Amino acid sequence: MKNNYERYSGWDFRKMNKKGCSYYIYRRGPDKTIMPLVNSIQGKKVLEVGLGGGYYTAHFLRNGCGVTGVDVNPHLGSHLGIEIIKAPADDFSRLLGKRTFDVAASFWMTEYLDPAALKAYIAESLKVLHEGGLFITTIPRNRGLGNLHVLASGLKHIKKFCFSEGDFLPWLAGTHVSVTTLRGLFGLPYAHFVVVKK
């Protein structure tokens, strides 16, 4: 198996942000739910984990947000002109010092996290939010297109993961959490859209 998101070390942002066939199968439908929330976030301090080529980052920046990124491949977002800390999704808060954020967000990165890493990523994200802050993420479902996506990736020797709500909701105990099903092509369920108010 390839090393999860480390496999992007030789890519650039143009390849990351290209809308290929997989975008229309998996992400076009979900963006109809994600983008209204992203565009409602104006002038906030945002931490984006696993920002890749900056598809959603660009929207935050257009909305006047101050964005700090975390990525194991910071070169992918070098064209954005923001600070990007090189770190994995499950171990970054110590590198931020005492900084806190209004929003901690990640889109389509969690498919690379095994259960232990997903749990740590959630804890790390909540740790850097100030009281009342928002944690926003997508988590592939273990049914429908989410499961199919993981299986198809395995055929290409890329290790990915998918989860049920019961897998991750216990790690969000004590927060105000909303989970919406994101649907891909033909309305098939693809991912959980998780929005948490700390």
What does this protein look like?
There is one protein chain. With 198 residues, the chain is α/β, with parallel strands linked by helices. It has a single domain (4-163, 183-197), classed as Rossmann fold (3-Layer(aba) Sandwich). The chain has six helices and seven strands, in the order ααβαβββαβααββ. It has helices spanning 13-16, 21-40, 55-62, 115-127, 144-155, 165-168; strands at 45-49, 66-71, 83-86, 101-106, 129-140, 176-183, 189-197. Strands 3-2-1-4-5-7-6 form a seven-stranded mixed sheet. It starts with 12 loop residues before the first helix and ends with a strand. The model has no long low-confidence stretch (mean pLDDT 91).
Descriptive tags:
single chain; 198 residues; alpha/beta; Rossmann fold; 7-stranded mixed β-sheet; 6 helices; 7 strands; 31% helix; globular
- Strand order within the widest sheet? 3-2-1-4-5-7-6
What's the CATH class, please? Alpha Beta
CATH fold node name: Rossmann fold
Class based on secondary structure composition and strand pairing: alpha/beta
The tally of helices reads: 6
| Span between termini | 36 Å
CATH architecture: 3-Layer(aba) Sandwich
Tally of strands: 7
Strand content: 25-35%
Instruction: Tell me the series of helices and strands, N- to C-terminal.
Output: HHEHEEEHEHHEE
Question: So, the CATH homologous superfamily?
Answer: Vaccinia Virus protein VP39
Overall outline: globular
Specify the biggest β-sheet. 7 strands, mixed
Helix proportion: 25-40%
Rg calculated over all Cα atoms: 16 Å
Query: Ranges with pLDDT <50 over ≥5 residues?
Result: none
- Rounded mean pLDDT score: 91
Could you say how many structural domains there are in total? Answer: 1
